[in-house]
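Deliverable D2.4 — example input (structure tokens):
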């Protein structure tokens, strides 16, 4: 008897569970063809109206954001334009430009100055070592003549020495260009 009672209770639970999970009848089953077509079109219209409302809200928000951004940028441009025309604005723009480009400008200026000075120095030294030069040995006074000069031969005045000195100075100039580039860049 216990087995029968247990089996009946389990059967009853199974039937109740099945009854709850069984498909419920839809209203479409009881409608005529015309009513079903109208019902489906009403569902589609309701769905489209919901989408249109959602899209309309999005468009409204997008338009408001666009207006806010445009107004904000217009205000920034107007204020910055007015500020840039004042002395403080000009000084501020100069400081911003210096912060961005100052180190590079200083390096370029110093590198070019270094290159010019050392190149001129190398050329003068090269000329003194290669060319004979005229040295004043007697000066009777300011605007008085005749002044006496003596020609002194340069240390590298012969042709073999000129070639060696030229090679040394070309190497020195190439090294100078490398140093100047290292300073600038």
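Example output (designed residues):
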């Amino acid at each position: 008897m216990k087995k029968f009672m247990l089996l009946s209770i389990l059967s009853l639970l199974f039937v109740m569970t099945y009854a709850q999970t069984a498909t419920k009848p839809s209203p479409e089953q009881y409608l005529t063809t015309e009513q079903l077509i109208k019902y489906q079109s009403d569902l589609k219209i309701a769905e489209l109206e919901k989408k249109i409302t959602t899209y309309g809200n999005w468009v409204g928000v997008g338009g408001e954001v666009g207006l806010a951004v445009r107004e904000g940028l217009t205000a920034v441009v107007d204020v910055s334009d007015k500020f840039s025309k004042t002395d403080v604005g000009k000084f501020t723009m100069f400081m911003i430009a210096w912060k961005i480009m100052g180190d590079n400008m200083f390096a370029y200026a110093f590198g070019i100055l270094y290159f010019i000075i050392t190149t001129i120095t190398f050329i003068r030294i090269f000329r003194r070592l290669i060319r004979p030069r005229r040295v004043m040995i007697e000066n009777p006074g300011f605007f008085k003549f005749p002044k006496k000069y003596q020609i002194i031969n340069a240390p590298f005045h012969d042709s073999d020495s000129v070639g060696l000195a030229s090679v040394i100075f070309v190497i020195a100039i190439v090294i100078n260009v490398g140093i100047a580039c290292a300073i600038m860049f």
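Strands lie at 133-138, 148-152.
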